[in-house]
Design brief:
By secondary structure, the protein is mainly alpha-helical. Helix content is 69%, strand content 0%. It is built from three helices and no strands. It is elongated and about 55 Å long. The model has no long low-confidence stretch (mean pLDDT 86).
Length: 85
């Protein structure tokens, strides 16, 4: 495992980290790891899911020309709900 050193942190930020760590029953270092994990690992997979879904939607809508997105939004809502078109 790698080691990361972060310099020049604001004292108030370090205090808040310590408080948050205590509230979660962890050491400040473990809390910092959890924060980084939540921010980077979870967001990355969520972002990937979003962009994959967006690509799929673009592919399904390819060639459709409309000036009003209401029909597309309603169709997508119905599709997700399993309603017939």
């Amino acid at each position: 495992m790698a080691t990361l050193t972060i310099r020049k942190l604001d004292d108030a930020l370090v205090r808040r980290l310590g408080i948050r760590a205590a509230e979660n029953g962890r050491a400040a270092e473990a809390e910092a790891r959890a924060i980084l994990d939540d921010a980077l690992v979870t967001t990355s997979s969520t972002s990937r899911d979003f962009w994959a879904g967006a690509a799929e939607l673009r592919e399904r809508l390819k060639g459709r020309v409309t000036g009003d997105s209401t029909d597309i939004i309603c169709e997508e809502r119905d599709r997700r709900a399993g309603l017939p078109r």
